Amino acid sequence: MQKLITAVLLMVLTMHVGAQCKDTNTAFKAGELVRYHAYYNWGFIWINAGQVSFEVEPTTVDTSPAYHLKAHGATYKSYDFLFKVRDTFETKVDTLHLEPYEFKRVTNEGSYHANYLYRFNREQRSIVASIQKEKEPQRDTTLLWKDCSFDLLTMVYKARNIDYEQYRENEKIPISMVVDGEIHDIYIRYLGKETIKNRDGRRFRCLKFSPLLVEGTIFKSGEDMTVWVTDDANRIPIVVEAKILIGSVKAVFVDAVNTRYPLSAEIK
Fold this sequence. Notes:
Layout: H1 4-15, E1 33-42, E2 45-61, E3 64-75, H2 77-80, E4 85-94, E5 100-109, E6 112-121, E7 126-133, E8 139-144, E9 149-151, H3 152-159, E10 172-179, E11 182-197, E12 203-211, E13 225-230, E14 237-243, E15 248-257, E16 266-267
Parallel strand pairs: 9-10
Antiparallel strand pairs: 1-2, 1-15, 2-3, 3-4, 4-5, 5-6, 6-7, 7-8, 10-11, 11-12, 12-13, 12-16, 13-14, 14-15
């Protein structure tokens, strides 16, 4: 239960990959808000213990128009006495190619706290990272900003603009992400199309993926995650399932407002 919300956030953040560098945004607009329930598998029971949201706000960076992308995860107050979680991811990106300016992550899980800050220098093609974890000194490092590398949250929105019709079933799509102050070259495996039924009975035509995970404090390494996103112009995640070190977690779509297009993938 302690890692539930963080795992669900990372699942949704990790699932969208393979974005081409210079794709322009046609999948979402400012004002979009998407919400999920976070479930943890305990034996044969799936427990709804929290919620996750993704939001797009308009902003400016150095007078240029930009998007402020936000992801927030929290346990329900009824579970806070067991283990309180409040995790936040934020990124500011340009509106044309969604290239990041700055990424922030604030982690609060019980008594554990951590802060991550990445500043992306476009002229020097570098990433200045500052990481402060509980009971550890602040770690500052500068990374070479290799082409087509993005933070987790930016990758979510970049990948929503990919034309997945160009990929064959079972094909691997390489990607590069900045995670925990390091750049990881990983991939997702495209698994084709499938109709999936949500927990509330709604059905959606979906694209299905299995991303390669980086082993850490929550996930095992390997392809132990499955993702379904709407097979329409929005590419909104509907269900994400993954095994973690103890048990399994699931993110389940609740609703979306101010989407750029109608959810035509829903079967009514």
